[in-house]
Design brief:
Helix content: 55-70%
Order of helices and strands: HHHHH
Number of helices: 5
Strand content: under 5%
Largest sheet: none
Structural class: mainly alpha
Radius of gyration: 15 Å
Length: 117
């Protein structure tokens, strides 16, 4: 992953297009590129089979949110910590982690224009 000044995003948020998101993933999370490609292929197949763009729209939305989070190393680290905490056997800790994960994802969806303000 490339580095940035503390608290600054590694790259600007790209447009929510397959090509722009692929390039962003290549820059900030190259290890995720095989998953990106596999999920894109699956979404394209589902869209063709159902004559419906919804699978591709979900794919773009999911990866726009992923990029939004991963381009901010501190936010990505927080999300990973909460994801690990969510696996706790302590129900209260797992609930708190789930709530924090939800807040991070909601904010990311809003930031990329997927939720109304």
């Amino acid at each position: 992953m490339t580095t940035s000044a503390a608290g600054q995003p590694l790259i600007p948020q790209p447009p929510a297009t397959v090509a722009a998101l692929r390039q962003a993933v290549r820059q900030i999370a190259p290890a995720a590129l095989p998953a990106f490609t596999q999920e894109l292929d699956q979404a394209a197949d589902q869209s063709r089979q159902g004559s419906d763009l919804a699978p591709l729209q979900r794919f773009v939305a999911q990866w726009a949110v992923y990029v939004h989070i991963q381009r901010q190393p501190e936010l990505a680290a927080d999300l990973r910590r909460w994801e690990n905490a969510a696996e706790s056997d302590d129900a209260a800790q797992a609930r708190q982690a789930a709530s924090q994960i939800g807040q991070i994802l909601d904010a990311a969806h809003e930031a990329v224009g997927l939720l109304a303000r």
